[in-house]
Design a protein that fits this description.
The chain has 311 residues and is an alpha+beta fold. The protein contains 13 helices and seven strands. The chain folds into three domains: 168 residues, no CATH class; 81 residues, no CATH class; 35 residues, no CATH class. A hairpin with a 2-residue loop joins strand 3 and strand 4.
Length: 311
């Protein structure tokens, strides 16, 4: 019979631990155990809430992706999350804001979302929308006005891959969970190396930036992915320069983004010699140039200038 896999049970446990605030009684504001489901009820047939014993002919949760075909087992591959409302750091968060945040992370292809096939949700409690990684569908039934559905590619469930990072990151972002991602020694070294390389890029004069922007293109690109207000940047690099643009919400995404730009400039000489020469010459008057020429070279310079003028 269809079973709830351990990796989705871990997500369920994580959400209930932090969003079911009063565990001794049922409250509308809390996410209750009955509101977080994995396996469909006994009459449920077809879809990601079903394992191999309940799928139907041409089941979309199997036939539309090789990842699903290869991963079909008795395990369900879906999670439903019901309504909740919590206040943290002076802001209120609920199912709608949670759903919109998760969809935004999926749309941005954050590394910890790549096992999610679809999210069916309501951004406002009136309309139902569907984010589909395969771009096959865009709607859902009205039950998703009060719960959000997550489908996971079946091969990720079969492999037992941890699905908690996205949800842990959400809880950290809204302040309900401390950032407990301890850096390994290797990660710390890698991050420090990247930080030094980024500073080098920020000081480089590679190519002109967008019109009206004083920075070069590398600086502009980096400033689009980094933000001083990002908690990880602030935690590990308090001297990180103030930058404009969306923050990176997790270490993995930060490393991946920085590695991408660094790989593009690997091996390049960041010294712009022509610009340096031009800048030096612009600051010199004829008198200063004459003063700078050693007496032993003055005659040679005069002869060379005369030859060029004659030509």
């Amino acid at each position: 019979m269809t079973r709830a896999p351990a990796n989705l049970m871990a997500v369920r446990s994580l959400l209930l631990t932090h969003l079911n605030i009063d565990k001794d009684r049922t409250r509308d504001a809390d996410l209750e155990p009955a509101e977080v489901g994995i396996v469909g009820d006994p009459n449920h047939r077809g879809g990601y809430h079903c394992g191999s014993d309940r799928v139907v002919a041409n089941d979309y949760s199997v036939v539309e992706s090789p990842r699903d075909r290869a991963g079909l087992t008795l395990d369900a591959a879906a999670l439903d999350v019901g309504q909740f409302r919590v206040t943290s750091a002076g802001r209120t968060h609920d199912l709608r804001s949670f759903s919109v945040w998760c969809v935004g992370q999926c749309a941005a292809n954050a590394p910890d979302t790549r096992d999610i096939r679809e999210i069916i949700y309501s951004p406002d409690g009136r309309t139902v929308r569907r984010w589909d990684r395969l771009r096959r569908r865009s709607s859902g039934d009205d039950s998703h006005l009060w719960h959000t559905h997550f489908s996971f590619f079946r091969d990720a469930i079969k492999a037992g891959r941890d699905q908690t990072p996205l949800f842990r990151r959400y809880l950290t972002t809204i302040g309900l969970l401390e950032d407990d991602m301890a850096l390994t020694e290797a990660q710390a070294r890698q991050l420090a190396d990247l930080h030094r390389m980024v500073n080098k890029l920020l000081k480089a004069s590679l190519v002109p930036g967008p019109e009206g922007q004083p920075d070069n293109a590398a600086t502009w690109w980096l400033r689009s992915i980094a933000d001083r207000d990002d908690p990880l940047l602030r935690k590990y690099f308090p001297d990180w320069p103030a930058m404009a643009g969306p923050g990176l919400a997790q270490l993995g995404a930060q490393l991946a983004a920085l590695q991408t730009v660094l790989s593009q400039f690997a091996g390049r000489d960041f010294t712009d010699e022509p610009a340096i020469v031009e800048g030096v010459l612009a600051s010199l008057t004829p008198e200063k140039i004459a003063e700078a020429i050693p007496p032993t070279m003055a005659q040679q310079v005069a002869e060379e200038l005369a030859r060029r003028l004659a030509a």
